[in-house]
Amino acid sequence: xxxDLRKLRYFVAVADHLNFGRAxxxxxxxxxxxxxxxRALENELKAQLFERDNRETSLTPAGEALLGDARSLLQAADxxxxxxxxxxxxxxxxxxxxFMPGLIVTDAVRELSRRHPELSAEVxxxxxxxxxxxxxxxxxxxxxxxxxxxxxxxxxxxLLSEPRVVVVPAGHQLxxxxxxxxxxLADEHLLQDPDAVPEWRDIATELRSARPRPASxxxxxxxxxxxxxxxGHGIAVLPLSTATYYTRPDVAHxxxxxxxxxxxxxxxxxxxxxxxxREFAEIARSGLA
Length: 289
Hints:
By secondary structure, this protein is an alpha/beta fold. Helices cover about 40% and strands about 20% of the residues. The chain has 11 helices and 11 strands.
Protein backbone atom coordinates (compact mmCIF):
# COMPACT_ATOMS: atom_id res chain seq x y z
CA UNK A 1 0.00 0.00 0.00
CA UNK A 2 1.29 3.49 -0.92
CA UNK A 3 0.63 6.30 1.54
CA ASP A 4 -1.15 9.28 0.01
CA LEU A 5 0.79 12.43 0.99
CA ARG A 6 -2.32 14.58 0.65
CA LYS A 7 -4.17 12.44 3.18
CA LEU A 8 -1.14 12.62 5.49
CA ARG A 9 -1.23 16.43 5.30
CA TYR A 10 -4.91 16.35 6.21
CA PHE A 11 -4.17 13.99 9.10
CA VAL A 12 -1.41 16.24 10.47
CA ALA A 13 -3.66 19.28 10.24
CA VAL A 14 -6.37 17.57 12.30
CA ALA A 15 -3.76 16.31 14.78
CA ASP A 16 -2.42 19.85 15.17
CA HIS A 17 -5.83 21.44 15.73
CA LEU A 18 -7.64 18.46 17.31
CA ASN A 19 -10.72 19.97 15.74
CA PHE A 20 -12.07 19.06 12.30
CA GLY A 21 -13.68 22.45 11.78
CA ARG A 22 -10.52 24.47 12.47
CA ALA A 23 -8.40 22.02 10.47
CA UNK A 24 -10.70 22.30 7.45
CA UNK A 25 -10.48 26.12 7.64
CA UNK A 26 -6.68 25.95 7.77
CA UNK A 27 -6.65 23.60 4.77
CA UNK A 28 -9.27 25.64 2.86
CA UNK A 29 -11.45 22.60 2.23
CA UNK A 30 -14.93 21.64 3.41
CA UNK A 31 -15.26 19.76 6.67
CA UNK A 32 -17.19 16.85 5.07
CA UNK A 33 -14.37 16.42 2.54
CA UNK A 34 -11.79 16.38 5.32
CA UNK A 35 -13.77 13.83 7.33
CA UNK A 36 -14.04 11.56 4.29
CA UNK A 37 -10.30 11.77 3.62
CA UNK A 38 -9.48 10.87 7.23
CA ARG A 39 -11.87 7.94 7.15
CA ALA A 40 -10.27 6.79 3.89
CA LEU A 41 -6.81 6.97 5.48
CA GLU A 42 -8.03 4.99 8.48
CA ASN A 43 -9.49 2.35 6.16
CA GLU A 44 -6.24 2.12 4.21
CA LEU A 45 -4.19 1.74 7.39
CA LYS A 46 -6.82 -0.47 9.05
CA ALA A 47 -6.45 1.62 12.19
CA GLN A 48 -8.54 4.25 13.96
CA LEU A 49 -6.48 7.46 14.21
CA PHE A 50 -8.84 9.73 16.17
CA GLU A 51 -11.34 9.40 18.99
CA ARG A 52 -14.27 11.69 18.19
CA ASP A 53 -17.32 12.73 20.14
CA ASN A 54 -19.50 15.83 20.34
CA ARG A 55 -17.05 17.66 22.62
CA GLU A 56 -13.51 16.82 21.56
CA THR A 57 -11.18 15.06 19.17
CA SER A 58 -8.09 13.21 20.39
CA LEU A 59 -5.43 10.98 18.89
CA THR A 60 -5.59 7.24 19.46
CA PRO A 61 -2.33 5.37 20.19
CA ALA A 62 -2.20 4.49 16.50
CA GLY A 63 -2.63 8.15 15.62
CA GLU A 64 0.17 9.13 18.00
CA ALA A 65 2.42 6.54 16.35
CA LEU A 66 1.62 7.86 12.89
CA LEU A 67 2.07 11.55 13.71
CA GLY A 68 5.84 11.60 14.13
CA ASP A 69 6.42 9.53 11.00
CA ALA A 70 3.90 11.61 9.04
CA ARG A 71 5.73 14.84 9.83
CA SER A 72 9.05 13.32 8.77
CA LEU A 73 7.58 11.93 5.54
CA LEU A 74 6.01 15.26 4.62
CA GLN A 75 9.20 17.17 5.40
CA ALA A 76 11.21 14.73 3.31
CA ALA A 77 8.77 15.06 0.38
CA ASP A 78 8.86 18.85 0.58
CA UNK A 79 12.66 18.82 0.75
CA UNK A 80 12.88 16.57 -2.33
CA UNK A 81 10.61 18.89 -4.30
CA UNK A 82 12.63 21.90 -3.20
CA UNK A 83 15.91 20.31 -4.29
CA UNK A 84 14.55 19.25 -7.69
CA UNK A 85 13.00 22.67 -8.34
CA UNK A 86 16.25 24.36 -7.34
CA UNK A 87 18.29 22.31 -9.80
CA UNK A 88 15.72 22.82 -12.56
CA UNK A 89 15.59 26.58 -12.02
CA UNK A 90 19.28 27.27 -11.57
CA UNK A 91 20.90 24.46 -13.47
CA UNK A 92 23.42 24.01 -10.64
CA UNK A 93 23.21 21.60 -7.73
CA UNK A 94 23.58 23.10 -4.28
CA UNK A 95 24.83 21.38 -1.14
CA UNK A 96 24.13 23.16 2.14
CA UNK A 97 25.87 22.46 5.44
CA UNK A 98 24.22 23.47 8.71
CA PHE A 99 26.40 24.39 11.67
CA MET A 100 25.87 25.39 15.28
CA PRO A 101 27.53 28.44 16.87
CA GLY A 102 31.20 27.93 17.71
CA LEU A 103 31.76 25.22 15.10
CA ILE A 104 33.97 26.12 12.14
CA VAL A 105 33.10 24.29 8.92
CA THR A 106 35.05 26.40 6.43
CA ASP A 107 37.82 23.91 5.67
CA ALA A 108 35.45 21.00 5.03
CA VAL A 109 33.14 23.08 2.81
CA ARG A 110 36.14 24.47 0.91
CA GLU A 111 37.47 20.97 0.30
CA LEU A 112 34.10 19.79 -1.02
CA SER A 113 34.02 22.77 -3.39
CA ARG A 114 37.56 21.99 -4.57
CA ARG A 115 36.58 18.43 -5.41
CA HIS A 116 33.33 19.47 -7.11
CA PRO A 117 33.78 22.87 -8.80
CA GLU A 118 30.40 22.47 -10.50
CA LEU A 119 28.70 22.36 -7.08
CA SER A 120 27.41 25.38 -5.19
CA ALA A 121 28.46 24.60 -1.59
CA GLU A 122 26.69 26.77 0.97
CA VAL A 123 26.47 27.06 4.75
CA UNK A 124 23.61 27.88 7.12
CA UNK A 125 23.90 28.82 10.79
CA UNK A 126 21.40 26.93 12.94
CA UNK A 127 20.40 27.04 16.63
CA UNK A 128 19.14 24.66 19.33
CA UNK A 129 15.57 25.04 18.07
CA UNK A 130 16.06 24.35 14.35
CA UNK A 131 19.29 22.37 13.94
CA UNK A 132 17.48 19.15 13.01
CA UNK A 133 14.35 20.73 11.50
CA UNK A 134 16.59 22.40 8.90
CA UNK A 135 17.79 18.94 7.83
CA UNK A 136 14.32 17.42 7.69
CA UNK A 137 12.76 20.27 5.69
CA UNK A 138 15.60 20.37 3.17
CA UNK A 139 17.20 23.69 4.05
CA UNK A 140 20.41 21.80 4.79
CA UNK A 141 21.73 18.55 3.32
CA UNK A 142 23.86 17.70 6.35
CA UNK A 143 24.29 19.39 9.70
CA UNK A 144 26.75 19.66 12.55
CA UNK A 145 24.36 18.92 15.42
CA UNK A 146 24.97 19.49 19.11
CA UNK A 147 23.37 16.86 21.33
CA UNK A 148 20.90 16.35 22.86
CA UNK A 149 18.61 16.75 19.84
CA UNK A 150 15.62 15.04 18.26
CA UNK A 151 17.29 12.61 15.84
CA UNK A 152 14.12 10.82 14.72
CA UNK A 153 14.45 9.84 11.06
CA UNK A 154 18.08 10.97 10.84
CA UNK A 155 21.30 9.08 10.31
CA UNK A 156 24.15 10.29 12.51
CA UNK A 157 27.87 9.96 12.89
CA UNK A 158 29.73 10.96 16.04
CA LEU A 159 32.22 13.71 15.26
CA LEU A 160 33.72 15.21 18.41
CA SER A 161 33.18 16.13 22.03
CA GLU A 162 34.25 19.27 23.84
CA PRO A 163 34.13 20.65 27.37
CA ARG A 164 31.28 22.82 28.56
CA VAL A 165 31.85 26.00 30.55
CA VAL A 166 29.68 28.28 32.65
CA VAL A 167 29.25 31.89 31.57
CA VAL A 168 28.82 34.49 34.31
CA PRO A 169 28.79 38.31 34.46
CA ALA A 170 32.29 39.83 34.44
CA GLY A 171 31.81 41.11 38.00
CA HIS A 172 30.61 37.76 39.38
CA GLN A 173 32.40 36.36 42.44
CA LEU A 174 33.52 33.32 40.45
CA UNK A 175 34.83 35.31 37.48
CA UNK A 176 38.59 34.97 37.20
CA UNK A 177 38.72 31.40 38.49
CA UNK A 178 40.27 28.90 36.08
CA UNK A 179 38.15 25.94 37.11
CA UNK A 180 35.25 25.24 39.48
CA UNK A 181 32.96 22.36 40.41
CA UNK A 182 29.27 22.42 39.60
CA UNK A 183 28.36 22.54 43.31
CA UNK A 184 29.64 26.13 43.34
CA LEU A 185 26.75 27.00 41.00
CA ALA A 186 24.01 25.56 43.21
CA ASP A 187 22.70 28.97 44.27
CA GLU A 188 22.73 30.45 40.77
CA HIS A 189 19.78 30.85 38.38
CA LEU A 190 20.25 28.91 35.14
CA LEU A 191 18.91 30.65 32.01
CA GLN A 192 18.23 27.31 30.32
CA ASP A 193 16.05 24.26 30.65
CA PRO A 194 17.39 22.50 33.79
CA ASP A 195 17.28 19.18 31.94
CA ALA A 196 19.95 20.54 29.57
CA VAL A 197 22.36 20.65 32.52
CA PRO A 198 21.38 17.70 34.74
CA GLU A 199 24.47 18.15 36.95
CA TRP A 200 23.14 21.59 37.98
CA ARG A 201 19.52 20.44 38.09
CA ASP A 202 20.31 17.77 40.67
CA ILE A 203 21.87 20.20 43.17
CA ALA A 204 20.14 23.52 42.36
CA THR A 205 18.87 25.37 45.42
CA GLU A 206 15.99 27.02 43.57
CA LEU A 207 14.68 23.66 42.36
CA ARG A 208 14.58 22.28 45.91
CA SER A 209 12.89 25.37 47.29
CA ALA A 210 9.15 25.53 47.93
CA ARG A 211 9.08 28.81 46.03
CA PRO A 212 8.43 28.63 42.28
CA ARG A 213 11.51 28.83 40.07
CA PRO A 214 12.02 32.33 38.62
CA ALA A 215 10.66 32.51 35.09
CA SER A 216 13.26 32.59 32.32
CA UNK A 217 12.58 33.97 28.85
CA UNK A 218 12.87 31.64 25.86
CA UNK A 219 16.35 32.43 24.54
CA UNK A 220 16.78 31.27 20.97
CA UNK A 221 20.35 32.39 20.32
CA UNK A 222 23.73 32.56 22.02
CA UNK A 223 23.64 36.33 21.70
CA UNK A 224 20.39 36.50 23.68
CA UNK A 225 21.81 34.26 26.41
CA UNK A 226 24.91 36.41 26.74
CA UNK A 227 22.86 39.60 26.94
CA UNK A 228 20.88 38.18 29.86
CA UNK A 229 24.03 36.89 31.56
CA UNK A 230 25.72 40.28 31.22
CA UNK A 231 22.62 41.95 32.69
CA GLY A 232 22.90 39.74 35.78
CA HIS A 233 19.75 37.71 35.16
CA GLY A 234 21.48 34.35 35.59
CA ILE A 235 24.16 32.03 34.24
CA ALA A 236 24.42 29.91 31.10
CA VAL A 237 26.29 26.71 30.28
CA LEU A 238 27.82 26.61 26.79
CA PRO A 239 30.26 24.48 24.84
CA LEU A 240 33.78 25.87 25.17
CA SER A 241 34.11 26.72 21.47
CA THR A 242 30.86 28.70 21.56
CA ALA A 243 31.85 30.67 24.65
CA THR A 244 35.28 31.38 23.14
CA TYR A 245 33.85 32.45 19.79
CA TYR A 246 31.49 34.92 21.50
CA THR A 247 34.08 36.40 23.88
CA ARG A 248 33.00 39.81 25.18
CA PRO A 249 34.28 42.03 28.03
CA ASP A 250 31.13 42.00 30.17
CA VAL A 251 30.98 38.22 30.67
CA ALA A 252 33.49 35.54 31.68
CA HIS A 253 33.53 31.81 31.13
CA UNK A 254 34.91 29.27 33.60
CA UNK A 255 35.75 25.59 33.17
CA UNK A 256 33.55 23.26 35.24
CA UNK A 257 35.46 20.06 35.88
CA UNK A 258 32.47 17.81 36.59
CA UNK A 259 30.20 18.80 33.71
CA UNK A 260 29.79 16.17 31.00
CA UNK A 261 31.22 17.28 27.65
CA UNK A 262 29.03 18.39 24.76
CA UNK A 263 28.77 15.85 21.95
CA UNK A 264 28.73 16.95 18.31
CA UNK A 265 27.62 14.70 15.47
CA UNK A 266 26.93 14.95 11.76
CA UNK A 267 23.31 14.27 10.86
CA UNK A 268 21.36 13.83 7.63
CA UNK A 269 18.08 12.30 6.48
CA UNK A 270 18.38 8.53 6.88
CA UNK A 271 16.61 7.73 3.61
CA UNK A 272 18.92 9.86 1.43
CA UNK A 273 21.63 8.04 -0.50
CA UNK A 274 23.34 11.12 -1.98
CA UNK A 275 27.05 10.25 -2.29
CA UNK A 276 27.92 13.88 -1.54
CA UNK A 277 26.64 13.40 2.00
CA ARG A 278 28.95 10.46 2.63
CA GLU A 279 31.85 12.28 0.98
CA PHE A 280 31.35 15.37 3.11
CA ALA A 281 31.20 13.24 6.27
CA GLU A 282 34.53 11.68 5.34
CA ILE A 283 36.04 15.12 4.69
CA ALA A 284 34.80 16.39 8.06
CA ARG A 285 36.28 13.38 9.87
CA SER A 286 39.64 13.61 8.11
CA GLY A 287 39.86 17.32 8.93
CA LEU A 288 39.54 16.53 12.63
CA ALA A 289 42.25 13.88 12.36
